[in-house]
């Protein structure tokens, strides 16, 4: 289905947020997720379904002061 | 002297230096500088993952896990709502509930927006974060941030990355007098003497990044900052002499060899 990930449309065969992370090669990485404006805890990734058009923000820690 | 520790949000700290992780020439120099600085708290920013580059470009791969307290910032936020959103994302990492509220109002100066910073601090304190707002060196807004529940208040010495040093030592001194929570000078410092002066004014700690990361030798500068913090802190605790207008000799004139 089509999802909007970090502002860009992507076609992914995913059912849950955890699937999205797996398909993008991000499993096991220190990633934080917001789904349609709601910040998810790590334990919610497997139980949060994705729906067509869902906006996902995938962020992480970068260098900064 | 017994161990000169201090506390932020119930966490006991020995080092009085918080170190930013931006702008270092490479990860090896960064790690060595972190070690040389003696810091226990590292700051980070939160940004989108680049989905088209598969390699792990997270800063955390370069940092020894569980060794440091993480202080993510809300840099890039222009409003309280944006800062709160970034803070919630940072906490979802499961790695830290500390947050440096940083809301810039002006692209050229990056000076903090005091009204939005206060709003964000109020919201995040209610949500249980340990909130450390970066703010102007204004004693009134600093006090309001303390009243809002900030765990520490972080006035800037000068705009971020300028290295101008403490532009208003009178205000920094007043902020230390007025507040009960730790005061941490954040941003604008350039070199070791700036750090020593801040500590002599009685602040509890220093947050810096550019002066270490962009020094010709970041590792040596990190050590210099550690020593400057110690020197300034000891000078503050030991009590400096008052300034006088005219000379007073170290030895009296009694028993002088000249008749």
From TrEMBL, chain A:
Pfam families: ThiS
CDD domains: Ubl_ThiS
Matching InterPro entries: Beta-grasp_dom_sf, Mopterin_synth/thiamin_S_b, Thi_S, ThiS/MoaD-like
Superkingdom: Bacteria
Gene3D superfamilies on file: 3.10.20.30
NCBIfam families listed in its UniProt record: thiS
Name of this protein: Sulfur carrier protein
UniProtKB/TrEMBL annotation, chain B:
Subcellular location: Cytoplasm
Pathway the protein takes part in: Cofactor biosynthesis; thiamine diphosphate biosynthesis
Major site of localization recorded for this protein: cytoplasm
Known catalytic reactions: [ThiS sulfur-carrier protein]-C-terminal-Gly-aminoethanethioate + 2-iminoacetate + 1-deoxy-D-xylulose 5-phosphate = [ThiS sulfur-carrier protein]-C-terminal Gly-Gly + 2-[(2R,5Z)-2-carboxy-4-methylthiazol-5(2H)-ylidene]ethyl phosphate + 2 H2O + H(+)
One Pfam family this sequence matches: ThiG
Top-level taxon of origin: Bacteria
Sequence positions that bind 1-deoxy-D-xylulose 5-phosphate: 161, 187-188, 209-210
Oligomeric form and interacting partners: Homotetramer. Forms heterodimers with either ThiH or ThiS.
HAMAP family per the UniProt record, alphabetical: ThiG
Family per similarity comment: Belongs to the ThiG family.
Name the record gives this protein: Thiazole synthase
Species name: Paenibacillus rhizosphaerae
Gene for this chain: thiG
């Amino acid at each position: 289905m089509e999802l909007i990930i970090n502002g860009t449309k992507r076609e992914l065969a995913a059912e849950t947020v955890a699937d999205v992370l797996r398909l993008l090669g991000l499993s096991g990485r220190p990633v934080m997720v917001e789904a349609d404006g709601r910040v998810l805890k790590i334990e919610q990734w497997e139980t949060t379904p994705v729906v067509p058009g869902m906006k996902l923000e995938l962020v992480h820690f970068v260098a900064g002061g | 002297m017994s161990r000169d520790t201090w506390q932020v949000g119930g966490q006991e700290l020995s080092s009085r230096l918080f170190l930013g992780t931006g702008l270092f020439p490479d990860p090896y120099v960064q790690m060595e500088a972190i070690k040389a600085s003696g810091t226990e708290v590292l700051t980070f920013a939160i940004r989108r993952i680049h989905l088209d580059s598969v390699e792990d470009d997270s800063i955390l791969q370069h940092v020894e896990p569980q060794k440091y307290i993480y202080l993510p910032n809300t840099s890039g936020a222009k409003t309280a709502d944006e800062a709160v959103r970034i803070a919630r994302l940072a906490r979802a990492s499961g790695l830290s509930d500390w947050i440096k509220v940083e809301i810039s109002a002006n692209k050229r100066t990056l000076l903090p927006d005091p009204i939005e910073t206060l709003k964000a601090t109020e919201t995040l304190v209610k949500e249980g974060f340990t909130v450390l707002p970066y703010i102007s060196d204004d004693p009134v807004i600093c006090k309001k941030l303390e009243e809002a529940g900030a765990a520490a208040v972080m006035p800037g010495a000068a705009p971020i990355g300028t290295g101008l040093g403490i532009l208003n030592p009178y205000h920094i001194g007043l902020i230390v007098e007025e507040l009960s929570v730790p005061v941490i000078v954040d941003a604008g410092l350039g070199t070791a003497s700036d750090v020593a002066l801040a500590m002599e004014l009685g602040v509890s700690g220093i947050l810096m990044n550019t002066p270490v990361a962009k020094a010709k030798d970041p590792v040596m500068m990190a050590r210099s900052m550690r020593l400057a913090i110690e020197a300034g802190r000891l000078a503050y605790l030991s009590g400096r002499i008052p300034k006088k207008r005219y000379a007073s000799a170290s030895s009296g004139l009694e028993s002088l060899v000249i008749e």
